[in-house]
Amino acid sequence: MNSHILVIDDEKNYLLILETILEEEGYTVTALNDPQMALDYLDESEVDVVITDMKMPGISGQDILEHIQKHHAQIPVLIMTAYGSIDGAVEAMRCGAFDYISKPFSNDELMLSVRKAALLSKSEQEKRLMTQTLAEQYGPHKLVGNSRSIREVLQMVSKVAPSRSTVLITGESGTGKELIARAIHYSSPRREGPFISINCMSLSPGVLESELFGHEKGSFTGATAMKKGRFELADGGTLFLDEVGELSQDLQVKLLRVLQEKAFERVGGSRTIHADIRLVAATNKDLKQAVEKGEFREDLYYRLNVVGINLPPLRERREDIPVLVAHFMQKFSSENQQELKKFAPEALEYLTAYEWPGNVRQLENVVERCMVLASREEIGVEDLPSEIKDEEAQFKSAVDLLPVELELSGTLEKIEAALIRRALVKSGFVQVKAAELLNISKSLLQYKLKKYNIQPK
């Protein structure tokens, strides 16, 4: 990498020597003997590493360091100092300098320090680029959908993201809860910090405790070394606890303590560790019901649910399906360098009418399958999976969404409301056509729209 190094020294001989050595190693070098000019240059130019003398008239190396720490913290600073000023150099390192170089210096020692500083600078640049890319990918403006319900979710994300408040995201599996968690993180002041996630359902309670809080060497069989947990790894960023409703009672108590005291101990350890995290949790369970049954602590529920965001199932925002289909087609076409295909209008109608028990995740998988297997540029009904194009299979998938224990009259009303929504979407929200699809009069349709509080668009 051809790093750009700024060298600052009021002694022109040292400037010339450093410029020659560094340029021979392939670096781009700017050498300045005026510290004020160097500060102005820093504010106007892209610099990867700064090498500055400690003692200079007017503006010292310490002043240069403080300016860089305040305005360009990503730039590593190497301090040059005479032997008699080593104490000052050590103090500068305490203040954030990357390293110090003694005058007269060894070329090998100088180059070793410069290489390390240049690598650090490159690493920081890559990290910033990655953060920017992720923020663009997961920012609220990148979440797909135009329905009123998804717009309300995006408004909530925009409002809660700048705060430190704990967020509880609820919704069925496959609705995109982790996507919302990432959008909150990458739209927040913590965007440059880590986003750490863990699925609480995928691990046994003992393993999950170690994953969350870390463990000390020898704390249990197989603990051959100290390991940091997710809370430590998320320091300065966001920790996402997916399926938080699956936590054991013991872990619920420990999580509550962390939320209250902002502190914890590793498994097998006694030292209290503090971590600055923003917690976002998600569940597909009804936690209120779990509280009533004694399965989930009420105090923890209220700690988690400071701000609640509910993601609606895909079947309740069918108008977003064509938009999502177009998004996934573009995504898979770009990823696989494949010619962009399109769905025939009739095939798209089938997709829009389907109940989608697996929600957005299932839709994404179906679009990918069709893109891979369809032999023509236009994807037809015959290319769709059987469960989507088969009316009987569609009905079965809708019934499978219902709970085993249900109250019949209320359930039938929910099914009727779902059929009315589907007919509206299929008819392009033209009420006369929707009534014809349902084989009812327009006036009866309007009565039911009012009864079920369905917006005709």
In short:
This is Two component, sigma54 specific, transcriptional regulator, Fis family. The chain is of the alpha/beta class and 457 residues long.
Cα-to-Cα separation, first versus last residue: 56 Å
Please state roughly what percent of the residues sit in beta strands, choosing from under 5%, 5-15%, 15-25%, 25-35%, 35-45% or over 45%. 5-15%
Number of domains: 3
Instruction: Tell me, rounded to a whole number, the average pLDDT.
Output: 86
Radius of gyration: 30 Å
Total helical segments? 20
Would you report the number of β strands? 14
Strand order, largest beta sheet: 2-1-3-4-5
CATH C-level label of the largest domain: Alpha Beta
The profile of the biggest β sheet is: 5 strands, parallel
Q: Give the CATH H-level superfamily of the largest domain.
A: P-loop containing nucleotide triphosphate hydrolases
As a percent range, the share of helical residues equals: 40-55%
Question: What is the correct CATH architecture of the largest domain?
Answer: 3-Layer(aba) Sandwich
Structural class: alpha/beta
Under CATH, the topology of the largest domain is which? Rossmann fold
Which blocks of ≥5 consecutive residues have pLDDT under 50? none
The outline comes out as elongated
